[in-house]
Amino acid sequence: MATTPTLADRGQRLGLRLISKAAGLPVMADPKVRGRVERILGRSTHAGFRAQVAVGRAFKQVKGSGSAKRPSPVSRRGVFDLTPTEDQQMLQEATRELADEVIRPAGSRADTERAVPAEVREALQEMGLVLVGVPEELGGIAEERSAVAGVLVLEQLARGDMGIAVAQMGTAAVATALALYGDADQQATYLPHFAGDEPVAAAALALQEPQPLFDPFALTTTAVPQGDSLVLNGTKALVANADSAEVLVVSAMVEGEARLVVVEAATEGVTVEDDPAMGVRAAHTGRVVLTDVIVPRANLLGTTDDHRDAVRRGRLAWAAAAVGTGQAVLDQVTEYVKERKAFGEPIGQRQAVAFMVADIAIELDGLRLAVLKAAARLDADADPAQVAQVVGEVRALTATHAARIGSHAVQLLGGHGFVKEFDNERWYRDLRGAGVLEGTLLV
Amino acid sequence: MIDLEVPRKFRPLVEQARGMAEEVFRPISRKYDLAEHEYPRELDLISAVIDGLSSSGAGQGAGASSSTRATDPEGEGEVAAVGSGRHHPAGSKVRNGSNLSSVLSILETCRGDVGLTLSIPRQGLGNAAIAAVANDEQKQRYAGQWAAMAITEPETGSDSGAIRTTAVRDGDEYVLNGEKIYVTAGERAELVVVWATLDRSLGKQAIKSFVVRRDNPGLRLVRLEHKLGIRASDTAAFVLDDCRVPAEDLLGDPEIRIEGGFGGAMQTFDNTRPLVAAMALGLTRASLDLTTELLAKAGVTVDWDRPAHVQSHAAARLLQMEADYEAAHALTLRAAWMADNGRPNSMEASMAKAKAGRTCVDVSLACVELAGATGYAERELLEKWARDSKILDIFEGTQQIQLLVVARRLLGMTSAQLK
């Protein structure tokens, strides 16, 4: 099958061309010269494509006392209701403000620079959102299960900017995973590093792999048991904050089943290469390559069902982010079509335009309500089959309608939508990702 | 606390409605599709059951008559608010009331059969109109009677503000003249709620609804339509020829108020649109349930966790259709919940009807496609549902009218600005 060469392929080909050219030179007949050139070429290829060996702190293993702490399920009242609790409203209001005042103005720059500006990062860290899914007794802020709180927060953050939201909440995903699935030792070893004076620079929940038709339950990454260890091999794609993550939770096939494994970034054999994408660029996505990475078998995180649960929660989190960015689209185009004039009147007075705005609103609200329904089921510890179905539906809605909302966002502005002067082209790129990417986020 | 499940207290009602759909409607569904204009006598029996449910209070309303209009704390719909029945002012306590229970029970009965649901005595859309705009005295007077709804005219469909049927005050009576078509349950109902204008030059604000007794000699049935679907439900055409109606049968406020919206008559839609959305949901549910069953026999099932793109095309389509159903379902429950809690819901009612209406047409047609000959032939009901579905994206406001309502609300535009 013919494929278009990627930039990396072209780079490697260029390297090969240089080597073969050099090899033809008479001086290369000298084995000493030849060896030196080969080393240099080898190093440059390594530097170019395997940018760095992942860095991070050494986590001292801590023995947890008693059994793992879990956020407790929410008890339902049995009443249909769309009103968030007071706690949730406070969280929602606080993040709403943050989104309007800090995140939204920084969105464009963060996208260009592929980094979250320091002042934005500080503002977000101050709010302690990383611990939104961690129970109080583990140093977090959740009183009980918090998928609803999580989607409300993500919606607001991504209304500000999806890339920044992903960059920040990617770390939260690992903290939440430890709270939900970790045993007492894992919680005691890692969770303290998400709070305190020297929190981890980042952490990443790496499920995605590069192959087309990716299925998170049929992974190419493997973790083979060897005595008390697991040996991991494979490549994780589009990992948020890959180069700054100090601890990773990766998915891998363990004895034929997809499982979660904690991998410290400083472990030998973990390398990171840059993996920029169409969108969520502020999250500085990279590939994490695992080559004969050996971790203790005790690093298995949760069960097979927990992995499945993490996939669902990840999809739900992406959907919540899509709702937020979709709302940013709706808010902006609503004003734009009233102001922009063509043929002597506001374009919003034409049905062809107005109906697109109406469709954005309808599909957006449909998605938002489905997301809330799914989150409430998760918090109430509903039958997993019921959770699976509604999350599957949410995923389908995100893949279809969020991408279309992004398309409408550009179309309604015409040429203005296509240039970087407006946010719309970024929304277009980010909204495509929300229904495609796996893991990364977790509610 | 956010929770989008069917409320606990309505589950018995839902179960009863489901039982009725499966035990009564389904077995006679094809019979009355083929025997258009024949009265489904089986419904006389079950209407007694429904009346029993309603009066016991256990059901909180099993049909259209029980929905009540939303109050409007901002006074936007002040005309309609006069004598608008049960008020549920916005308060701190969240309630699940008759709007939500009506939506839930209609969804179930329409999973059985839409045409038969529309033919349940005393549960007509006219009853919803009365519930929405009548004063308490009127509600009492019309209680227990079956009311149809007459809005559309030969020259006036979606632009219901342009109706030509006139009402002229003459002493203690109004004299109605005009022509009405597409009156659902018009032949069988005991009352017909007729929209007429007091003064055509004053536009929409002059439109009022009148309750006309079916045996009024001035109300003449001229025709029953032959239709694409919902054939179990009779669709009548009437001529009003100097039809004299007592003045106290004008619903709501008799004054013409120049300010304010479309007035009382139009506010009916805030109530009835979620109900029609619920009908669409019921039909969609029926199509999806049967198709899921048929495809399972053919070896195709949906895996909710695995990505759609690694499943069969048929499974992926089922997944996407269930997703759109979920969205339509949530939008509809929201619109009803808002009405129950005294929140203005015009836009949300239209969103629900737009999404549910188009979803039910898309899904029912796709299910015929997936089931092939089994779907297209009369042996199963899939082809019938694909015919029934189309009206649900048309009556109580077409898809396009819903989009107009939504867009005007969003953009703050009048009907003069966004035509």
Automatic annotation (TrEMBL), chain A:
<dbReference type="InterPro" id="IPR046373">
    <property type="entry name" value="Acyl-CoA_Oxase/DH_mid-dom_sf"/>
</dbReference>
<dbReference type="InterPro" id="IPR036250">
    <property type="entry name" value="AcylCo_DH-like_C"/>
</dbReference>
<feature type="domain" description="Acyl-CoA dehydrogenase/oxidase N-terminal">
    <location>
        <begin position="85"/>
        <end position="195"/>
    </location>
</feature>
<dbReference type="InterPro" id="IPR009075">
    <property type="entry name" value="AcylCo_DH/oxidase_C"/>
</dbReference>
<comment type="similarity">
    <text>Belongs to the acyl-CoA dehydrogenase family.</text>
</comment>
<protein>
    <submittedName>
        <fullName>Acyl-CoA dehydrogenase</fullName>
    </submittedName>
</protein>
<dbReference type="InterPro" id="IPR009100">
    <property type="entry name" value="AcylCoA_DH/oxidase_NM_dom_sf"/>
</dbReference>
<keyword id="KW-0274">FAD</keyword>
<dbReference type="Pfam" id="PF00441">
    <property type="entry name" value="Acyl-CoA_dh_1"/>
</dbReference>
<dbReference type="InterPro" id="IPR006089">
    <property type="entry name" value="Acyl-CoA_DH_CS"/>
</dbReference>
<dbReference type="InterPro" id="IPR013786">
    <property type="entry name" value="AcylCoA_DH/ox_N"/>
</dbReference>
<dbReference type="InterPro" id="IPR006091">
    <property type="entry name" value="Acyl-CoA_Oxase/DH_mid-dom"/>
</dbReference>
<dbReference type="Pfam" id="PF02771">
    <property type="entry name" value="Acyl-CoA_dh_N"/>
</dbReference>
<dbReference type="Pfam" id="PF02770">
    <property type="entry name" value="Acyl-CoA_dh_M"/>
</dbReference>
<feature type="domain" description="Acyl-CoA oxidase/dehydrogenase middle">
    <location>
        <begin position="204"/>
        <end position="293"/>
    </location>
</feature>
<keyword id="KW-0560">Oxidoreductase</keyword>
<dbReference type="InterPro" id="IPR037069">
    <property type="entry name" value="AcylCoA_DH/ox_N_sf"/>
</dbReference>
<dbReference type="GO" id="GO:0050660">
    <property type="term" value="F:flavin adenine dinucleotide binding"/>
</dbReference>
<feature type="domain" description="Acyl-CoA dehydrogenase/oxidase C-terminal">
    <location>
        <begin position="312"/>
        <end position="440"/>
    </location>
</feature>
<dbReference type="GO" id="GO:0003995">
    <property type="term" value="F:acyl-CoA dehydrogenase activity"/>
</dbReference>
<keyword id="KW-0285">Flavoprotein</keyword>
From TrEMBL, chain B:
<dbReference type="GO" id="GO:0003995">
    <property type="term" value="F:acyl-CoA dehydrogenase activity"/>
</dbReference>
<dbReference type="InterPro" id="IPR009075">
    <property type="entry name" value="AcylCo_DH/oxidase_C"/>
</dbReference>
<protein>
    <submittedName>
        <fullName>Acyl-CoA dehydrogenase</fullName>
    </submittedName>
</protein>
<feature type="domain" description="Acyl-CoA oxidase/dehydrogenase middle">
    <location>
        <begin position="148"/>
        <end position="243"/>
    </location>
</feature>
<dbReference type="InterPro" id="IPR009100">
    <property type="entry name" value="AcylCoA_DH/oxidase_NM_dom_sf"/>
</dbReference>
<keyword id="KW-0274">FAD</keyword>
<keyword id="KW-0285">Flavoprotein</keyword>
<keyword id="KW-0560">Oxidoreductase</keyword>
<feature type="domain" description="Acyl-CoA dehydrogenase/oxidase C-terminal">
    <location>
        <begin position="260"/>
        <end position="411"/>
    </location>
</feature>
<feature type="compositionally biased region" description="Low complexity">
    <location>
        <begin position="56"/>
        <end position="67"/>
    </location>
</feature>
<dbReference type="InterPro" id="IPR037069">
    <property type="entry name" value="AcylCoA_DH/ox_N_sf"/>
</dbReference>
<dbReference type="Pfam" id="PF00441">
    <property type="entry name" value="Acyl-CoA_dh_1"/>
</dbReference>
<feature type="region of interest" description="Disordered">
    <location>
        <begin position="56"/>
        <end position="96"/>
    </location>
</feature>
<dbReference type="GO" id="GO:0050660">
    <property type="term" value="F:flavin adenine dinucleotide binding"/>
</dbReference>
<dbReference type="InterPro" id="IPR006091">
    <property type="entry name" value="Acyl-CoA_Oxase/DH_mid-dom"/>
</dbReference>
<dbReference type="Pfam" id="PF02770">
    <property type="entry name" value="Acyl-CoA_dh_M"/>
</dbReference>
<dbReference type="InterPro" id="IPR046373">
    <property type="entry name" value="Acyl-CoA_Oxase/DH_mid-dom_sf"/>
</dbReference>
<dbReference type="InterPro" id="IPR036250">
    <property type="entry name" value="AcylCo_DH-like_C"/>
</dbReference>
<comment type="similarity">
    <text>Belongs to the acyl-CoA dehydrogenase family.</text>
</comment>
